[in-house]
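Table S2 (continued). Query chain:
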Amino acid sequence: MTVNVERLAAPGNFHSAARGSTVGSINDFLGSVRILSTTIDEWMEEELKETTNNRVTPSQLRVLKLVARTNARRIGDVAEFLAVSNAAASKAVDRLVRRGLVRRAEAVSDRRAVELSLTPEGRTLLAQYEAATNQVLKEVFGSLPVDRLEETAEFLDELSTRMVKEGRTREGICLRCGIHFRDRCLLRQTVGRNCYFHLHRDPTLNSHDSLPTVGEEV
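Corresponding output:
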């Protein structure tokens, strides 16, 4: 079945398209999306275990990527990004500090605050993980036409945008892309959602620049 994204995205067509679909078809579609999402999460978790020798959990990986890719480098930022309390975020950071992956230091602008940075070992570990996952992604998706991937992504973005416009999702800063920071996102462009990544992006890095495997933190 070929879906006309432009027709679906046109004003007033979202409800008519939904009414024209059977409940079974909708559930099949949602099931397929969920299966893909769950499969990717499971695969990335296994890749993380293998690459880091179980040194880092998925939640801790998010902290490493947050600190490496953005200027959000305080405990409160970690808590907001992980959607946990400051106490829970502090414990997560403590574990990374003990493993030699994250460093705490007094913030330059406020000596009462603590600023986080990756140690050279932390940057190397994250860079190795990203290199390994990028290679596997190329092997899995490399045979698929790029235009088909882009069209599918656009279609899913259109659906997500429509659902957000309907007002049945959480308000506030958007964290929906997780660690898959995006330069272009319809939720930010058309719905005006505040994107966590763009609010805190590090101007010295593009979202998918390769991290150096040696040297001091940015």
